[in-house]
UniProtKB/TrEMBL annotation:
SUPFAM superfamilies: TPR-like. The lineage of its organism: Eukaryota, Fungi, Fungi incertae sedis, Mucoromycota, Mucoromycotina. It comes from Mortierella isabellina. The keyword Cell inner membrane does not apply. This is Uncharacterized protein. Pfam families: TPR_19.
Length: 198
């Protein structure tokens, strides 16, 4: 990966050189985080969920550590910070979303939701994170939240077969929930009808 930062310290003030070194540190961390994410992707495609999770977690460790460096560089101009920072957020969001994909395979729904929320915090446009959180919401009975996510996804891509499949599953779950509610109310009204009036 080509570096986004080119240090030019020869004859420059010391503060400028220190600033460039901090940007290089950010770039090195981004490169390492991206490398670990890619290793995690390879492990995931080989069905090594544990190995994938380990690599994604390590990538997040590298990328999250950059926040302190960015805060320490308080006077950074947006032109110099934005490319690295936005790329870091994107890779961070992808790592969290990929961790959610690993946990989907293990059906650990609450953790899927947690990691998807973190992915969306880092990268709100991450469609895979939106889809995965909708899947987890369906499986945990949070049907209204799932419906919102899936309808938003369907608006952005009306032909997405995965979204349509999950909407079908959502409708089936809705029918089951409605049927259960009807039975509960029916039993409640029958009991009330059997009680004598005072």
């Amino acid at each position: 990966m080509r570096s986004l930062v080119w240090p030019v310290c020869r004859g420059a003030p010391a503060a400028y050189c220190a600033y460039n070194k901090q940007l290089m540190d950010l770039q090195a961390k981004l490169d390492k985080g991206t490398e670990l994410k890619n290793t995690g992707n390879k492990a995931f495609t080989s069905n090594d969920v544990k190995g994938a999770l380990t690599n994604y977690h390590q990538a997040i460790f590298y990328l999250k550590g950059t926040e302190n460096i960015q805060q320490a560089m308080g006077g950074v101009s947006n032109e110099q910070e934005d490319p690295v920072k936005s790329q870091m957020k994107q890779v961070l969001g992808t790592c969290y979303s990929n961790m959610a994909a690993c946990l989907l395979k293990e059906e650990k729904w609450p953790r899927v939701i947690d990691y998807c929320k973190k992915a969306l915090e880092a990268d709100p446009k991450n469609k895979k994170a939106h889809f995965r959180i909708a899947q987890a919401y369906i499986r945990t009975g949070k049907l209204d939240l799932a419906r919102e996510e899936l309808q938003d996804l369907l608006r952005s891509d009306p032909d997405d077969a995965g979204v349509k499949r999950e909407l079908t599953l959502l409708k089936e779950k809705d029918k089951i929930e409605t049927s259960k509610e009807k039975k509960i109310y029916k039993n409640m009204f029958e009991r009330m009808a059997k009680q004598p009036d005072n």
